[in-house]
Specification:
The chain has 12 helices and 11 strands. By secondary structure, the protein is α/β, with parallel strands linked by helices. The chain folds into 2 domains: 182 residues, 3-Layer(aba) Sandwich (Rossmann fold); 137 residues, Rossmann fold (3-Layer(aba) Sandwich). The strands form 2 sheets. The chain has a 7-stranded mixed beta sheet, with helices on both faces. Strands 7-8-6-9 form a 4-stranded parallel beta sheet, with helices on both faces. The relative contact order is 0.18. The chain binds 6-O-phosphono-beta-D-fructofuranose (F6P). The site of 6-O-phosphono-beta-D-fructofuranose has 14 residues, from loops.
């Protein structure tokens, strides 16, 4: 059996740990051969491959990024892509494919599985928004990076009696903002699932200053003001039609300063949240996902995605992971609101 592996979408810490586990178990337990497809779906689409075996996965467990490269290529935007992909899989003698990715990459895998491609998915994303799994790997690392930043910003905000707005990733969902904001003791957390009222934000800011503290606001990049209350930012679209975000933190800081007269600055954490070595939890989760994904291939259980349920790794239909984004519930957000102001 020869198995192709690809990593698609935004990179995230733990991708290499998955690749390593797939190859280590695939070679030692099942006697499989591997081929790496480069840069997400661009690899099988344009037949760009790289060698993948035990020597290539030595030493990569703690390394961030992905040795296979990544991209946001959407093959369904290209005429004849499915035929091209299946022809390239055939010419590489590939019997099965493991696709490691988030909603977009796994969305493509779901459609290809429906068309008869033998594919198993592994959910990744720092955003933690893939359905069907309790957590995706990469999320814990991003939350830890954001929490450390918030901890550091508290002391400088207080020294200068300033508002500090921390913009974190999360274009559709606020998991990183919610978890890092709770862990870091943020005074306000704004997430895409709950449009914010700028007046309420400003009154919480003022209350915090009255208590002789400086407010820290954590805002997810996809957070939006309630309709008609504040101007929003728009940007270019990628090939999956997602807007390239970034900017809500600056807008918010400017608006708070204008409305309250308090100095407000924004810090955009950006790709720092995605780079570098994964936490121990993400290495553990990514490794187990890899081990179980290659077992699914071995069992011929295609059209499935590995998922974390409690402490068990299970297999769910790919469609369960991609049909709907996993978002923060109003009840969870309400827990965080107890600490606002
Ligand atoms: O999908 C993960 C993610 O990190 C989002 O949180 C963010 O909006 C997006 O990727 C940024 O993607 P890119 O690096 O391609 O601009």
């Amino acid at each position: 059996m020869r198995v192709g592996v690809l990593t698609g979408g935004g990179d995230c810490p733990g991708l290499n740990a998955v690749i390593r586990a797939i190859v280590r178990r695939g070679v030692s337990e099942f006697g499989y051969d591997f081929v790496g497809f480069r840069d997400g779906w661009r690899g099988p689409l344009e037949n760009v491959t790289s060698e993948l075996g035990i020597p290539q996965v030595r030493g990569i467990l703690p390394r961030g990024g992905t040795i296979l490269g990544s991209s946001r290529t959407n093959p369904f935007k290209v005429d004849g892509a499915v035929e091209q992909i299946t022809a390239n899989l055939r010419s590489n003698d590939v019997d099965a494919l493991v696709a490691i990715g988030g909603e977009d990459t796994l969305g493509v895998a779901t459609r290809l599985a429906d068309l008869g491609v033998k594919v198993v998915g592994v959910p990744k994303t720092i955003d933690n928004d893939v359905g069907g799994t309790d957590f995706t790997f990469g999320f814990d690392t991003a939350v830890n990076i954001a929490t450390e930043a918030i901890d550091r910003l508290h002391t400088t905000a207080e020294s200068h009696h300033r508002v500090l707005v921390v913009e974190v990733m999360g274009r559709h969902v606020g998991w990183i903002a919610l978890h890092s904001g709770l862990a870091g003791g943020a005074n306000i957390i704004l997430i895409p699932e709950q449009p914010f009222d700028i007046e309420k934000v400003c009154s919480l800011v003022e209350r915090r200053f009255q208590l002789q503290y400086a407010p820290i606001i954590v805002v997810a990049e996809g957070a939006v003001p309630a309709e008609g209350t504040m101007q929003t930012v728009s940007g270019e679209l990628d090939s999956f039609g997602h807007v390239r975000l970034g900017g809500v933190g600056d807008r918010l800081a400017a608006e708070i300063e204008a409305r309250t007269g308090q100095e407000a600055r924004a810090v955009v954490l950006g790709h720092i949240q995605r780079g570098g070595t994964p936490t121990a939890f993400d290495r553990w989760l990514a490794t187990r996902f890899g081990l179980h994904a290659i077992a699914a291939v071995h069992d011929g259980d295609f059209g499935k995605m590995v998922a974390l349920r409690g402490t068990d790794i299970v297999r769910v239909d790919l469609i369960e992971g991609t049909a709907a984004l996993k978002s923060v519930s109003p009840a969870l957000y309400a827990e965080a609101e107890i600490f606002f102001g």
